Amino acid sequence: MFNSNFDTLKTALDVQLKRQELHAQNIANAETPGYKRKYIAFEEYLQESQMKLKLSTTHEKHLPPATRVVTAKQVTQKSTSITNDKNNVDIDMEITEMVKDALRYQTLARLMSANIDRYNTVIRNVR
Amino acid sequence: MQSEFNILGISATGLSAQRLRIEIISTNIANSETTRTERGEPYRRKVPVFQELVRNIGGRPENGGVIVKRIYEDPSEFRIVYDPTHPDADENGYVRLPNVNIVREMVDMINAQRAYEANAMAINTTKAMITAALQIGR
Question: Domain containing B19: what range?
Fold first, then answer.
């Protein structure tokens, strides 16, 4: 009955939360020697999966493609470091990304509310 | 799956690690002229050693923040100053002073303060996110 918007939004919210966890981990370890920053390559995965899995329905009895579950994968960035303790956390960049992700999370939460509101409107007005 | 409160826990480990670091820096600064310790030598500069904490929950690694692995004593040379009037001076009039460099400690302290603030900011951001989640469906 409910459309897949809920699933998509839920996945997106979960991923943002996981991202926030990694920002927290990176910031907590900003002064840990040898630590390498962790991040989630979500957009990359999403884009990839959308490009790969475009199924066309050529017959009226073809089922539409099932909702894809995009899993967030934690990646460690092993590249260069800006300090001499082999730690590659750039705290300014990390904070900026964190704020951006939080705003994205709030936007997604609002979208989720708007989605629920639409159902509420339908339920209240039809009798 | 992951919980919001785990994120707050991660930032909390960051806060306490940086606070401990500031404490150690304060001790170093306070003892920058201490020529006598219980071991009979001048004070040695102390440094905390941080390590990433990854908990193993049900066979799955889970980010746990940071821990202070140990407190390391800097083995570098003591400062030697000529001061024959000092009670701890040797027969040639030289005094061994702690291997604490105030400028270095100050720089470390500012670093620790900034890192502490960054962790506090992470807590605030997580809080804003949880609040947004609680508003869903309101």
Answer: 2-136
Say yes or no for a CB contact (<8 Å) between A31 and B50: yes
Does residue B125 register a pLDDT over 80? yes
Q: What is the pTM of this model?
A: 0.81
- Which of B:116-135 have CB within 8 Å of A? 118-119, 121-122, 125-126, 128-129, 132-133, 135
- B66 exposed, middle or buried (CB, 10 Å; 0-12, 13-18, 19+)? buried
Q: Would you call A31 and B129 a contact, using CB atoms and an 8 Å cutoff?
A: no
Give chain B's domain count.
1
pLDDT tens digit sequence for A67-85: 555 667 788 888 777 777 8
CB contact under 8 A, A21 and B2: yes
Chain segment A87-120, per-residue pLDDT in tens: 888 888 999 999 999 999 999 999 999 988 888 8
Q: Tell me, what's the ipTM?
A: 0.85
Nearest to B10 among A28, A30, A33 (CB): A28
Distance from CA of A47 to the nearest CA of B (A): 24
- What is the DSSP secondary-structure string of B71-124? EEEP-SPPEEEE-TTSTT--TTSEEEE-S--HHHHHHHHHHHHHHHHHHHHHHH
Q: Which residue has the higher pLDDT, A22 or A74?
A: A22
CB distance A28–B51 less than 8 Å? no
- How many structural domains does chain A have? 1
Structural domain boundaries enclosing A75: 4-124
At B88, which amino acid appears?
A: D
